[in-house]
């Protein structure tokens, strides 16, 4: 896995980046994906609000947005280049507080959630949601990331 981790905020995320890298590697192993490449970019609410507005037509901030580069899952020259995941640090902090768990847990959750979207999973209907959320839980549990 080639994972680019970019912090566009003033927060020190070195520890979180180290842990999320391990969690995502564990997730790819569970999903039996041997090689892939993607980025996580941590931004503030203003930045993600603008992304959400421009690319999704939704005029508000959100916690995570994934931009998948891959439409044809059969293409695999030397590995998969998946795309980019943008995470709002502000929403991650408020989500951790709202759900009563640590910032690290919320950051790992959003990272796994974004990675699954890049891999083609979605939660637009109940059946797909069940599959995706079950995988999220399995990956986080296997990585000892708990509420």
Describe the structure in your own words.
The protein is an alpha/beta fold and 147 residues long. It contains 5 helices and 4 strands, in the order βαβαββααα. Helix 1 packs across helix 4 (103-118) and helix 1 packs across helix 5 (126-142). The two termini are 26 Å apart.
Fold topology:
Elements: E1 2-7, H1 14-30, E2 36-43, H2 45-56, E3 64-68, E4 80-88, H3 89-99, H4 103-118, H5 126-142
Helix pairs in contact: 1-4, 1-5, 3-4, 4-5
What percentage of the residues does DSSP assign to strands (E)? 15-25%
Helix content: 40-55%
Describe the biggest sheet?
4 strands, mixed
Distance from N terminus to C terminus (CA atoms, Å) equals: 26 Å
Mean pLDDT metric: 94
Give me the secondary-structure category: alpha/beta
Q: Spatial order of the strands in the main sheet?
A: 1-2-4-3
Q: Radius of gyration from the CA trace? A: 15 Å
Principal-axes geometry comes out as globular
| SSE string, helices as H and strands as E | EHEHEEHHH
Annotation, overall tally of beta strands:
4
Poorly predicted runs:
none
Number of helices: 5
């Amino acid at each position: 896995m080639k994972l680019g981790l970019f912090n566009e905020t003033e927060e020190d995320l070195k520890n979180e980046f180290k842990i999320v890298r391990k969690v995502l590697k564990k997730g790819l192993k569970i999903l039996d994906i041997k090689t892939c490449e993607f980025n996580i970019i941590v931004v503030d609410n203003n930045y993600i609000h603008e992304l959400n507005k421009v690319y999704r037509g939704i005029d508000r901030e959100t916690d995570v947005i994934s931009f998948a580069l891959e439409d044809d899952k059969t293409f695999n020259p030397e590995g998969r280049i998946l795309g980019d995941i943008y995470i709002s640090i502000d929403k991650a902090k408020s989500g951790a507080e709202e759900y009563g768990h640590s910032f690290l847990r919320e950051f790992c959750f959003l990272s796994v959630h974004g990675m699954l979207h890049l891999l083609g999973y979605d939660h637009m209907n109940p059946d797909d949601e069940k599959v995706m959320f079950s995988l999220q839980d399995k990956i986080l549990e296997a990585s000892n990331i708990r509420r």
